[in-house]
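Folding follows sequence. Below is one example:
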Amino acid sequence: MDTGDLEVAGRAIIDGNRFMTLGTANSEGEPWVSPVFYVADGYSTFYWISSPEATQVRNIGVRPQIGIVVFNSQQEPGSGEAVYMAATACELTGAEP
């Protein structure tokens, strides 16, 4: 699959799903993954809502580097595709980002 086809496929996966798996780590590097509902702003910015007390929020406070996977969890094993991303997260507060 060429780069253009991969981009089209990746955008379709992001557009076709509403949950992503968010991977974080605490200050000791211990991993934590969380399924979260997301809204994408284009294909490079993702927003989700989490309780301020949630493990992933506390982890992001000390280690903002995260991993994200978006995939259709209803697909047959071995037949699926996913989008994998590395990102830096931050907390937004207030009515406007």
User: Anything to note?
Assistant: The two ends are 36 Å apart (CA to CA). Residues 3-88 form a domain with the Pnp Oxidase; Chain A fold (CATH 2.30.110.10). Residues 3-15 form the longest helix (13 residues).
